[in-house]
């Protein structure tokens, strides 16, 4: 599904150069559930953003769905993004002025999905995330766990091939965190590839494979699935 | 998609109600002003455009270059029209227009039992030839004007006059006696003259009748009278320049010029009559194109200032939208999509503001029309041009106010927008915001400076010494040619203790009545190449108006021209330096008709408004031409004195209507136009400043909110409230000063230009600039402090917690 070869990312601000990623080689297959771990500042979010086509790498190659896209323009990336990718963030990032329903509907609007199909798919996503009864509420009226479920509904309503989650449980207590992890896990079982950044080992347990980053480099991989198989 | 934009827009605007209100109110104020100015400008531009031949109608003017500068006059010699008709067929139709500023009218009763009703009109009675109706397209409501005024002593009444003189009666066929001199038969009733004409009339009288009314009527090519004008249409295909040359050529035979004398008849397009203050018009009001441009500019300024508010508040607000924009981008929204969304939002605010301004305009138009004494119309639905203006305004403001914020907001990098909101928003056009605030301050300061200067010039008009007394003097118009009847009653007039002096004259020292003639001084054989202004007055004139004599003495009592006085300017023009030397010299005026000795020299006094230079003046006696009785009163007891005057007046003229005006009032009327402009300036400057303050208030509120944490930290570290307020004020004080550096020179330049129109004017003092700068500082810092104080007094612990 995606592959990176010697992926690099450098930030230059005020003449200070930070190497966020140094030669990251990563291969993710269709249907995988991957967790990325590592200490704060090691480059996890940076890697996820590049994979999520929100940012361009400064070097190396990046294949997504068999295309080399490290040099794609913002517009091309935006198009790939809205068709194939779903995002879940630590801070939910729901739009406060829109209701639960309207938030979930938004990706479909940008995808220009027709009104009837839109309604049906939004309802389905809300059901799946068990948040349908709150469809007319505004984000501020929901608990953190509920908000994150709405965010996941929004991420999956467009049926993305790849779901990217940056510390999805970071702002939640453990009970709500578990709930969210179970939802992600079941999505993965239904075929969605998931890449998740996390600090929590228990969250990482849900993944098939864990990649450890340190100072912008992959230092180890442990593949749970293989041990079971 | 649009539904989604719309929903978000409405909810966002509602949530940030304070921000929305500031924007809407600011914009609505700006738009209302520009709408009002649009209506005024359009009205001014519409003068006499409704005539079918408007684009080829001209007025004949006289342009002279004389030793004391150019002289422009719209009056033409009386015999000129006959010449035009005889030898210049390409200038047809052509008509004389004679304008009489009102008069007395007696409605003769049908039977002899009823006493005749008497009326006095103050405004335009227009004497026209039948060709008037070929030339102009005034509404006649089916009346054949040409036919109605073809006979001697006929009059067409406007509806208003007809209703006033003949309530419930049919005026047609009835007879009016004008100025107790001519009987005019009413031949029809026509609608009132439209507001937007410089040829206004309350009634139209056949031209030939004016010969009896007009005391100045003569058959000389050497004198002109400003109320006697010629309009004509240039035949299609004829060449204007050639026609003008031909007229000058043909007329040269009748009006020989002395060598060096530069006088030329020129053709002025009808469409320019309203805008050229050099020649004036019968309406008595011109407005220069520069003034109209200034108005348009102010209108644009006001919208600009309001739009700047918008840009400032919106980019500052961008912070709050960062997350939304970031997320929309993550979900695949393109930049154009986001721009559309934000422009749509701006459009909604603008539309709301626009609707509000339409209501405001509806409310404010009547008072404005009153103030400007214009009939301004505002009916959006029946007015395509106005609709177009509104649409253009909507699009322009939306684009201008919305484009930049939309560009900034849609340009956010999604990750940073989601991650560190503050940094993104800080970056979002901080320097642009400062620039815009500077621009706003600049506009405000320019307006303040201009307002102060215009105001000072007006004050100068009011207070400048005119060379004569104007306080406690009344001017009483007399029936033409009958001054003698009252003059014999002078002892009776002056019997009242409150009456200090009386003088009969053609006019008070400063008046709109102007009689010019050529002259010959001393033993010069040729007439000098400038004309003089004749002031006919009795021997009490100088005493009544307190005009000082420089040399010689006042002339003796006489009914005809016997002795002359001249003014200082006259002396300068003939090259005489010593006033004493002029006394005893011979003077011949009016061709060779009048001759006498100069017996004295008066100090210069102003003949018209301070716009015009003082002309050379010759004063003499000439009873038949006196049109006014001027009376100097005691400050107190004026009421009784006026009653006394009325009684004596009525005993002399039982058939005329007594009427008076205080001299200082009539002088104030010279500057009515400027006074109104000054008032408009003031109102609009105040509004501009108000709008600016609204924006500033919002912006500072926002900055304060953004720096809550910083303020909290500073307070914990021991900063005083005053030092916190100072923190914010310093910033804005700087911007005000930068703006001042720009505004000072700009306004100086424009005001110098404006003042150049006035021969007698103020000098621009540096204190004006200082005042404007200090005033803006005070206004800005007060606005800032109100908000900053809130931050300064906030609880630091709370402030730190929120971040
Ligand atoms: N926009 C940026 N400009 C400059 N440096 C950046 C930027 N974004 C990230 N970095 C730097 O790149 C490195 C990696 O950052 P990244 O956000 O990927 O870390 P992370 O592993 O996600 O950390 P955390 O666990 O705290 O979320 C850090 O040193 C960070 O300071
Ligand atoms: Mg991170």
Automatic annotation (TrEMBL), chain A:
The family database entries (InterPro entries) matched by this protein are listed as: AAA+_ATPase, ABC_transporter-like_ATP-bd, ABC_transporter-like_CS, ABC_transpr_LolD-like, MacB-like_ATP-bd, P-loop_NTPase
Please list the residue ranges annotated as the ABC transporter domain.
2-229
The answer to whether UniProt assigns keyword tRNA processing to this entry is: no
Q: Does the keyword Transmembrane apply?
A: no
Any one Gene Ontology MF annotation carried by this entry is:
ATP hydrolysis activity
One of the record's GO cellular component terms: plasma membrane
| Pfam families according to UniProt | ABC_tran
Q: Which UniProt keywords apply?
A: ATP-binding, Nucleotide-binding, Transport
State the coiled-coil residue ranges.
none
Concerning SMART domains, the annotation shows: AAA
Q: Which family does it belong to?
A: Belongs to the ABC transporter superfamily. Macrolide exporter (TC 3.A.1.122) family.
Q: What is this protein called?
A: ABC transporter ATP-binding protein
Native source organism of the sequence: Rufibacter immobilis
From TrEMBL, chain B:
Q: Which UniProt keywords apply?
A: Cell membrane, Membrane, Transmembrane, Transmembrane helix
Q: How does it sit in the membrane?
A: Multi-pass membrane protein
MacB-like periplasmic core domain ranges (all copies): 20-249
- Localization per Swiss-Prot or TrEMBL: Cell membrane
Q: Does the record bear ATP-binding in its keywords?
A: no
Molecular function in Gene Ontology: transmembrane transporter activity
Q: Which ranges of the sequence are coiled-coil?
A: none
Stretches that traverse the bilayer: 21-41, 292-319, 342-365, 385-415, 679-704, 716-744, 764-786
A Pfam match is: MacB_PCD
GO cellular component, as recorded: plasma membrane
ABC3 transporter permease C-terminal domain: residues covered: 297-414, 683-796
Q: Which InterPro entries match?
A: ABC3_permease_C (IPR003838), MacB_PCD (IPR025857), Macrolide_Exporter_MacB (IPR050250)
Report the protein name in the record.
FtsX-like permease family protein
Species whose genome carries this gene: Rufibacter immobilis
From the broadest rank down, the organism's phylogenetic lineage runs: Bacteria, Pseudomonadati, Bacteroidota, Cytophagia, Cytophagales
């Amino acid at each position: 599904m995606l592959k990176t070869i010697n992926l690099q990312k450098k930030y230059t601000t005020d003449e200070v150069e930070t190497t966020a990623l140094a030669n990251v080689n990563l291969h993710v297959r269709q249907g995988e559930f991957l967790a990325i771990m590592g200490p704060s500042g090691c480059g996890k979010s940076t890697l996820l953003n590049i994979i999520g086509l929100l940012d361009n790498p400064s070097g190396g190659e990046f294949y997504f769905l068999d295309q080399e896209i490290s040099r794609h323009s913002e517009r091309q990336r935006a198009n790939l993004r809205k068709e194939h990718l779903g995002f879940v963030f630590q801070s939910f990032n729901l739009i406060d002025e829109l209701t639960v329903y309207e938030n979930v509907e938004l990706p479909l609007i940008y995808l220009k999905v027709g009104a009837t199909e839109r309604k049906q798919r939004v309802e389905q996503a809300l059901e799946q995330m068990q948040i349908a009864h709150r469809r007319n509420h505004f984000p501020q009226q929901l608990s953190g766990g509920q908000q994150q479920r709405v965010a996941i509904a929004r991420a999956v309503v467009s049926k993305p091939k790849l779901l990217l989650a940056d510390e999805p449980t970071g702002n939640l207590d453990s009970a709500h965190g578990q709930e969210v992890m179970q939802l992600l896990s079941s999505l993965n079982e239904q075929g969605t590839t998931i890449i998740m950044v996390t600090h929590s080992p228990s969250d990482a347990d849900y993944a098939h494979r864990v990649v450890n980053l340190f100072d912008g480099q992959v230092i180890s991989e442990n593949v749970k699935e293989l041990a079971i198989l | 998609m649009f539904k989604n934009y719309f929903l978000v827009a409405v909810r966002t605007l509602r949530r940030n109600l304070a921000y929305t209100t500031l924007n809407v109110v600011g914009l609505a104020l700006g738009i209302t002003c520009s709408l009002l100015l649009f209506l005024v400008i359009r009205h001014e531009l519409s003068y006499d455009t409704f005539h079918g031949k408007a684009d080829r109608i001209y007025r004949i003017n006289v342009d002279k270059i004389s030793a004391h500068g150019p002289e422009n006059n719209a009056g033409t010699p009386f015999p000129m029209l006959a010449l035009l008709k005889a030898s210049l067929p390409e200038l047809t139709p052509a008509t004389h227009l004679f304008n009489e500023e009102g008069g007395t009218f007696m409605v003769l009763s049908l039977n002899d039992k009823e006493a005749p009703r008497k009326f006095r009109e103050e405004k335009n009675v227009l004497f026209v030839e039948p060709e008037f109706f070929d030339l102009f397209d005034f509404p006649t409501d089916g009346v054949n004007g040409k036919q109605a005024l073809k006979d001697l002593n006929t009059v067409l009444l406007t509806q208003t006059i007809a209703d006033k003189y003949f309530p419930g009666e049919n005026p047609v066929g009835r007879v009016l006696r004008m100025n107790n001199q001519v009987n005019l038969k009413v031949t029809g009733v026509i609608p009132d003259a439209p507001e937007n004409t410089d040829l206004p009339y309350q009634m139209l009288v056949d031209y030939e009748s004016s010969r009896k009314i007009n005391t100045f009527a003569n058959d000389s090519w050497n004198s002109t009278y400003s109320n006697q004008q010629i309009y004509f249409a240039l035949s299609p295909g004829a060449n204007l320049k050639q026609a003008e040359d031909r007229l000058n050529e043909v007329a040269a035979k009748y009006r020989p010029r002395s060598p060096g004398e530069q006088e030329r008849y020129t053709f002025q397009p009808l469409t320019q009559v309203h805008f050229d203050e050099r020649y004036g018009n019968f309406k008595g009001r011109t407005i220069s194109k520069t003034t109209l441009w200034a108005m348009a500019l102010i209108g644009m300024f006001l919208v600009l200032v309001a739009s700047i508010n918008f840009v400032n508040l919106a980019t500052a607000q961008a912070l709050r939208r960062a997350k939304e924009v970031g997320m929309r981008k993550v979900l695949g929204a393109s930049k154009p999509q986001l721009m559309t969304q934000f422009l749509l939002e701006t459009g909604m605010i603008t539309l709301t503001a626009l609707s509000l301004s339409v209501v405001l305009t509806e409310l404010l138009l009547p008072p404005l029309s009153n103030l400007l004494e214009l009939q301004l119309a505002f009916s959006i639905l029946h007015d395509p041009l106005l609709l177009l203006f509104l649409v253009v305004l909507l699009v322009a403001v939306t684009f201008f106010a919305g484009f930049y914020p939309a560009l900034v907001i849609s340009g956010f990098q999604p990750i940073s927008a989601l991650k560190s909101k503050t940094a993104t928003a800080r970056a979002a056009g901080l320097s642009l915001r400062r620039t815009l605030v500077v621009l706003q301050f600049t506009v405000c300061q320019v307006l303040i400076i201009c307002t102060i200067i215009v105001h000072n010039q007006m004050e100068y008009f009011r207070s400048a010494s005119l060379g004569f007394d104007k306080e406690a003097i009344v001017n009483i118009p007399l029936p033409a040619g009958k001054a003698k009847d009252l003059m014999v009653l002078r002892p009776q007039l002056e019997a009242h203790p409150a009456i200090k002096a009386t003088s009969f004259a053609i006019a008070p020292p400063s008046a709109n009545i102007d009689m010019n003639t050529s002259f010959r001084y001393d033993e010069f054989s040729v007439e000098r190449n400038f004309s003089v202004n004749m002031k006919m007055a009795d021997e009490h004139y100088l005493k009544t108006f307190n005009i000082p004599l420089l040399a010689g003495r006042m002339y003796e009592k006489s009914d005809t021209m016997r002795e002359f006085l001249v003014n200082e300017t006259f002396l300068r023009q003939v090259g005489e330096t010593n006033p004493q030397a002029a006394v005893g010299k011979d003077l011949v005026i009016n061709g060779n008709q009048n001759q006498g000795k100069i017996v004295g020299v008066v100090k210069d006094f102003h003949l018209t408004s301070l716009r015009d230079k003082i002309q050379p003046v010759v004063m003499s006696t000439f009873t038949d031409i006196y049109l006014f009785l001027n009376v100097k009163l005691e400050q107190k007891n004026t009421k009784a004195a006026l009653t006394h005057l009325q009684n004596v007046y009525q005993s002399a003229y039982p058939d005329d209507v007594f009427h008076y005006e205080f001299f200082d009032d009539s002088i104030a009327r010279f500057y009515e136009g400027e006074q109104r402009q000054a008032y408009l300036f003031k109102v609009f400057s105040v509004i501009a400043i108000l709008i600016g303050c609204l924006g500033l208030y919002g912006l500072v509120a926002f900055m304060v909110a953004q720096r809550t944490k910083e303020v909290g930290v500073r307070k914990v570290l021991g900063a005083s409230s005053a030092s916190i307020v100072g923190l914010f004020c310093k910033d804005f004080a700087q911007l005000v000063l930068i703006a001042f550096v720009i505004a000072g020179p700009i306004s100086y330049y424009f005001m110098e230009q404006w003042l150049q129109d006035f021969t007698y004017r103020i000098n621009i003092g540096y204190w004006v600039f200082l005042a404007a700068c200090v005033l803006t500082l005070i206004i800005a810092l007060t606005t800032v402090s109100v908000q900053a104080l809130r931050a300064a007094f906030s609880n630091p612990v709370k402030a730190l917690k929120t971040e």
